[in-house]
Amino acid sequence: xxxxxxxxxxxxxxxxxxxxxxxxxxxxxxxxxxxxxxxxxxxxxxxxxxxxxxxxxxxxxxxxxxxxxxxxxxxxxxxxxxxxxxxxxxxxxxxxxxxxxxxxxxxxxxxxxxxxxxxxxxxxxxxxxxxxxxxxxxxxxxxxxxxxxxxxxxxxxxxxxxxxxxxxxxxxxxxxxxxxxxxxxxxxxxxxxxxxxxxxxxxxxxxxxxxxxxxxxxxxxxxxxxxxxxxxxxxxxxxxxxxxxxxxxxxxxxxxxxxxxxxxxxxxxxxxxxxxxxxxxxxxxxxxxxxxxxxxxxxxxxxxxxxxxxxxxxxxxxxxxxxxxxxxxxxxxxxxxxxxxxxxxxxxxxxxxxxxxxxxxxxxxxxxxxxxxxxxxxxxxxxxxxxxxxxxxxxxxxxxxxxxxxxxxxxxxxxxxxxxxxxxxxxxxxxxxxxxxxxxxxxxxxxxxxxxxxxxxxxxxxxxxxxxxxxxxxxxxxxxxxxxxxxxxxxxxxxxxxxxxxxxxxxxxxxxxxxxxxxxxxxxxxxxxxxxxxxxxxxxxxxxxxxxxxxxxxxxxxxxxxxxxxxxxxxxxxxxxxxxxxxxxxxxxxxxxxxxxxxxxxxxxxxxxxxxxxxxxxxxxxxxxxxxxxxxxxxxxxxxxxxxxxxxxxxxxxxxxxxxxxxxxxxxxxxxxxxxxxxxxxxxxxxxxxxxxxxxxxxxxxxxxxxxxxxxxxxxxxxxxxxxxxxxxxxxxxxxxxxxxxxxxxxxxxxxxxxxxxxxxxxxxxxxxxxxxxxxxxxxxxxxxxxxxxxxxxxxxxxxxxxxxxxxxxxxxxx
Length: 815
What we know:
The protein is mainly alpha-helical.
């Protein structure tokens, strides 16, 4: 029972629960916010009969709503009927009102048509009046803009670009902002940048034309500037020389004559220059129109591109500088090439200096200094290279003058030129080298043309002519009557004159170098020393070594060098006179002529000794001895007598030589003759000598000794000259006397009679004599070997040979 009641309760609970679910589902269906899919799914998915139950619940709910609607309609129905009745009553009144309003509107419209027309006319007139006033006001604003734009166009047409830029600036900042809303103003605003670019292009084109123009005219500008600088310097120098025209009248006659001629020429040039100065002086501005530069600079400055313009100008000028500094390959051939090169450079920097002083900031002093330093380095390198090709001293001198004018011109414009003057010192060395080469040829020509004989003078006039060329003084010669002969040959005064000409030529280069007289004096002395010690000395050495120069010529050369050496002090005085430097008060360099001519004399003396020996050798070579003769001829050989006669005549020519030179030559000749005769005896090809040949040879040596004792050259003391033949004499005496016992006994003693006879020499000659004796005995008698005397002599010779060999061996071991 209890179980049954419990089950009924659970069924009841389930029924109530299901009803609640349906109620919730209906509430969800009536709601417009929630989706129906989930609700309907929950109803259909619950139980098999849930759909039917839900539909029943839904029908019940619909019926309840219908009842509520019906109740509400019944409640408001009477009010609705009353409202419809009232609306029908108002309908008739509304129709009447509509007709009245339409009639009134028609009558009002008819009455207001004329008013409306008049009002519209008034409105239209007032709008026109307002528009006219506005147009007048706007035209007053636009007319200045149009006038300025028209002015701009006119300025562009007449190429007044700087004014045009100012007009543009006024348009942009003052006029156009007032009327910027108009389209023509926008067109103007768009055109102004184009006009600026056009002005920039036109001004840049003018600048390029200007740069091309100054590139073409730079040589003319430079030539004019250099000419003006040279005229100013010449004028100042001429005035100074005119004030001192009488200075140095008492100097050397030749110098006075040259100074007077130079003064006359200088004054003449000065007067000519004065006439030229009276003409209008042209400047760079007269030759070139600089307005394109100013115009372009102002234009770019106004446009705010001044820095761009400066960089472009400097870049282009640097390129032109490099072109100007590039020389022509053949520039070194003529002075015109150098002049054109310098003129272009001067013209370039004159233009830069003008731009520096008339513009602000386009070029600066720092820029010009930097450009000048670059150019100066290039110029120095070019001049070093091209001047090294110059072999003509006149061209080098003209180059130096051009460099001086070039330096003075640029120095006048404020450019430092010290390095150019330093370069001139290098070129001076090269100039001296070209002078030395030229004078070397002159010296060779003088030596070739000389006859190497004393200068004959027939009368006083000829004597004075020679003395005017060369400072010769000889009281003894002055006492002699004409005609007479000067000791030196014709080349001496010619050499002296050429040395002075060299000094003048060297002085020409030293002028205008801004150096003191002391420095010029020192330079002249150094260059003259080079001429003497190198050029003249070399020419003398080559002359002495020439094959055609004989002993007579060599003697004359020694005499010439002696007189040239004595003339060196006059050359020093000559240099002091032309430089106005005293040799007493200033430590000046001395000329090295003493050593130069001493060396030449020593070379000539050595050549005399050599040629004498060669002549002796020539006579020795024609000697024809019969080394197997049984007896001598009783007289000296012919070749030797000819040799002695030659030596006598030769030494007579040596009378004008210094005593020691003649004595040395004579002693050298005798010693060489003695040595040659000794070598003839000891010749390895000579195998045997007879005693007859020894006797003949002894006769020849006696003639040599007689020649030595006859004092062919004065000044020898006693028998000094005969000692040259002492070795031969003792050797021949040993064989002629056959005094071997004495020789062997006294050998090595200071008192030995045959002290100068060497054992080896004696052994060699004895072996040759021994072979000669054997050969002679065989020819004379086949039984000579059985003679007792011959056998004893043979044994003696063999014994002496053994002893001599032992002496020779002892000497070699000792050595």
